[in-house]
Amino acid sequence: MECLICGNRRADSSDGLCSEACKIDSQLKKFRIVRVFFEGYPDKTIKRGMTLQEARAWCKDPETNSSTAKSKKAQRLFEKYGE
C-alpha cells in the first residue's frame, strides 16, 4: 500500500502514512474535498484547507455518500445531480 502523503510503499499502519516525517507533513499539508458527480456535471470543490484528519472525517460521514445519505438536503442534491 502507498503512503497518503509521499506515495512511497508503507508498512501496514492504520493511519496510512509511511514515516514520522509524513505524519508531521500530514499535519502541515492542507487538503480539499471535491465532489465528483456521476455524469454531465463538472466536479465541485466543497471545502479547502482541511487537515488529513478533517478530510478523512468528512469522507467517512455517511451523509456525504449518495448511497447512505438520509438528510433532505443530501437527497435533493443527489436528485438534482445524480450519484
Short description:
This protein is of the alpha+beta class. The protein has helices at 20-28, 52-60, 72-81, and strands spanning 31-35, 44-50.
Task: Describe the structure in your own words.
It is a single chain. The protein has helices at residues 20-28, 52-60, 72-81; strands spanning 31-35, 44-50. Strand 1 (31-35) and strand 2 (44-50) form a beta hairpin. The longest helix has 10 residues, at 72-81. It starts with 19 loop residues before the first helix and ends with a helix. The protein has a domain at 30-81. It has 3 helices and 2 strands, in the order αββαα.
Attribute tags:
83 residues, two-stranded antiparallel sheet
Structural class: alpha+beta
For the termini, the CA-CA separation is: 28 Å
Tell me the helix content. 25-40%
| Morphology | elongated
Portion in beta strands = 5-15%
If you average the pLDDT, what whole number results? 82
Q: Find the count of extended strands (DSSP E, 2+ residues).
A: 2
Q: Give the low-pLDDT segments.
A: none
Describe the protein's topology.
Elements: H1 20-28, E1 31-35, E2 44-50, H2 52-60, H3 72-81
Antiparallel strand pairs: 1-2
